[in-house]
Amino acid sequence: MPEFQLTAHELIEQVNNKNTTVQKIAESLKKRILETDPKVKAYVRLEHAQSASKPAGESSGILKGIPVSIKDNICTDGINTECCSKILSGFKPPYDATVIKKLKDAGATILELKTNMDEFAFGSSTENSCFGPTRNPWNLECVPGGSSGGSAAAVGADEAILAIGSDTGGSIRQPASFCGVVGMKPTYGRVSRYGLIAFASSLDQIGPLTKDTRDAAILMNVISGHDPMDSTSVDAPVPDYTKALTKDVKGLKIGVPKEYFVEGLDPQVKTIIEEAINKLKSLGAECKPVQLPHTKYAVPVYYIIATAEASSNLARFDAVQYGYRTAERVKNLIEMYCKTRGEGFGDEAKRRIILGTFALSHGYYDAYYLRALKVRTMIKQDFDQVFKEFDCILTPTSPTAAFKIGEKTNDPLKMYLSDIYTISVNLAGIPAISLPCGFTKNSLPVGLQLLAKPFGEEMLFRVAHTYEQNTEWHKIKPKL
User: Fold this and answer.
1) What local confidence, expressed as pLDDT, does residue 46 receive?
2) Helix/strand/coil percentages in the chain, nearest 5
3) How far from the centroid of its chain's Cα atoms is residue 199's Cα?
4) Is residue 450 a contact partner of residue 394, using CB atoms and an 8 Å limit?
5) Euclidean distance between CA atoms 328 and 339, whole angstroms
6) Residue 52: pLDDT above 70?
């Protein structure tokens, strides 16, 4: 089997046993990217592929020269990081994000190619990129999900060994579900956000996208931990997540919220999730219905808080020091700002800036933003209540499998509802994981989502790994 098809832990073992080398892994992956990515378009700036996977040499770190693909909103020293937006064209950060530094310290090779994404992470389909859409490796006419669609598609198409994404409202988990891979959104504060170009600072988290749960646990071991450069980073010990991969769920209590099995859930997805529940029951877990009554408010609350924070964060892109600037002659500074931002931001970015600015404006702040913050607290309290009695919660990751490219671009509200099962997790700050659990009749992957209490990643890995090792879904590959 060629190196590009293997998991990171298999490659680490092969390097240790001298059955392959870091150079061979890099060459195998580079060949795969050059052959496959013209169809999938998981990466941007493919012209950099010549230097994409050149390792510095044999590494002694945990990741031993394993290539890691990075989303285009995570700063890498001297490598273009543009959030797939024209407004940041040509921007090369003068520093590494903390997660990049941790990966390098662990011996990983950072690809100079960045993975495609919705502009500034605004989207659920990776269609809002200035580089054009990424395609789903299971069906090239379908979206890979978003906003970390490039990272998920790269892993799903074996164009990445490991990938890093960011998750503000489901941007790791929903594309993981659509592309048939594992994606984890860690507890807010578990992984440093320093060097992540912000979308919504109270919601954003960086996390792994991988071929299986063991790789996700290895990657979480590397990127987790306190960082004094991030004021929201939590100073708490990081366990060895690989020790949670026990293949045992006997006696665990898993809650199944009825609010996630209502109108709008695709019947095929519902059946597949019910089969996953039965599998966990057969392995000794106790699955019972639970209630999360404020779930119905999650979408409006999220799209007030997230757009308000985005409006504030994106105000810094003014073309004065870096990024795109209008080529038109202008009379004054204000006109330069207006023309630059009008030309530099895409439609979805403009939509969210306008929505957020409105929610924060005088006379509307209390009615919208302040009220949304109060309901957010109620959503978190729903989870707190359930976790008093249950070890974790099980839901579908998305109400549907991947949809066709262009299907929802003209209906923003329909697109926003793609995140209906994932955004509550970000509002509550809790961890969640998505893993493959079956396929629709059209051979599109379906994801199973598991949620745990804050800093309960070990529980997620325990349940996810047990399910994974007793099924074959994660081993099935798309025929590209």
Assistant:
1) 87
2) 40, 15, 45
3) 13
4) yes
5) 8
6) no
Q: Which letter does DSSP use for residue 223 in this model? A: H
Distance CA 126, CA 84 (A): 10
CA-to-CA dists, residue 124 to 118, 252, 260, 379, 403, angstroms = 8, 33, 19, 22, 11
What is the rounded distance in angstroms from the CA atom of residue 125 to the CA atom of residue 171? 9
Express each pLDDT in 231-268 by its tens digit: 999 999 999 999 999 999 999 999 999 999 988 999 99
Report how far residue 53's alpha carbon sits from residue 97's, in angstroms, rounded to the nearest whole number. 19
The average pLDDT across 87-104 equals 97
Mean pLDDT of 4-15: 97
Contact 136, 142 (CB under 8 A): yes
Q: pLDDT of 104-123, one tens digit each?
A: 999 999 999 999 999 999 99
Backbone angles phi and psi of 79, in degrees to 5 = -110, 130
Bridge partners, residue 288, by sequence:
255
Q: What residues are paired with 110 via a beta bridge?
A: 68
Nearest alpha-carbon partner for 153 in 80, 69, 97: 69
Q: Does domain 3-254+388-475 have CATH number 3.90.1300.10?
A: yes
State which amino acid sits at residue 272: I
Q: pTM score, two decimals?
A: 0.96
Torsion of CA 112, 118, 122, 125, to 10 degrees: -140
Q: Is the peptide bond before 151 cis (omega within 30 degrees of 0)?
A: no
pLDDT computed for residue 411 by the predictor:
87
The structure tokens 């079956």 sit at 438
Q: CA angle, corner 368, sides to 365 and 370, nearest 5?
A: 65
What would the mean pLDDT of 430-435 be, rounded to a whole number? 98
How far is Cα 377 from Cα 392, in angstroms, rounded to an integer?
20
Q: Is residue 215 within 8 Å of 429, Cβ to Cβ?
A: no
* Enzyme catalytic residues: 71, 147, 171
